[in-house]
Specification:
The structure is a single chain. It is built from one helix and twelve strands. It has 173 residues and is mainly beta. The protein has one domain: Uncharacterised protein YcnI-like PF07987, DUF1775 (Immunoglobulin-like, Sandwich), CATH 2.60.40. The structure holds copper (II) ion. The site of copper (II) ion has 4 residues, from loops.
Length: 173
């Protein structure tokens, strides 16, 4: 009777983890090939609190991302924040619109991901009619089981199969 119990516990642990992640602000997909152009959606699962409405989603673009373009969303506007280099990727993208608490939505960004690195962290500030949620917590590698209440969305970089080879079909603009 030992094995079925362990299997059941594993199943419970997995499904509760999945539910928790889906209810936060998460990256979808949460893994992408290093060096690739990847469309990553930032999925907002709920407002800042019950009865509140999301008005603004600000996504910080980490260093190493060479370009970042927001997907146009009907009903939403976007603003790009830029650093001193006008050719570099924006440092942040803010979507503005309305998203009631009972609904979820995806805010997609097309990015040229860095060729090397393990993972990218995208701090997100969610501004609502009444409150604000800062999705900026980063897990301590020394304490991987620690429960974070407002984790930042993370994208794991999948190593390129041939990192030393020539880049296929370079995109020059
Ligand atoms: Cu949540």
């Amino acid at each position: 009777m030992k094995t079925p119990l362990i299997a059941l516990l594993a199943l419970v642990a997995t499904s509760s983890l999945a539910t928790g992640a889906a209810a936060h602000v998460v990256a979808a997909p949460d893994a992408a090939k290093a060096g690739s152009y990847a469309a990553i959606a930032f999925r907002v699962g709920h407002a800042c609190a019950a009865g509140d409405t999301t008005l603004k989603v600000r996504i910080e673009i980490p260093d190493g991302v060479a370009s970042a373009r927001p997907q146009v969303k009907p009903g939403w506007t976007y603003t790009l924040e830029r650093g001193p280099d006008p050719k570099a990727a924006p440092t942040a993208i803010t979507f503005e619109g309305r998203l009631p608490n009972e609904a979820f939505d995806d805010f997609a960004v097309l990015m040229k991901l860095p060729v090397s690195g393990d993972r990218l962290v995208f701090p997100v500030i969610q501004t609502c009619e009444k409150g604000e949620s800062q999705w900026t917590e980063v897990a301590d590698p020394a304490r991987p089981d620690e429960k974070l209440s407002r984790p930042a969305p993370v994208v794991t970089l999948i190593p390129a199969p041939n990192p030393t080879g020539a880049a296929p079909a370079a995109h020059q603009h």
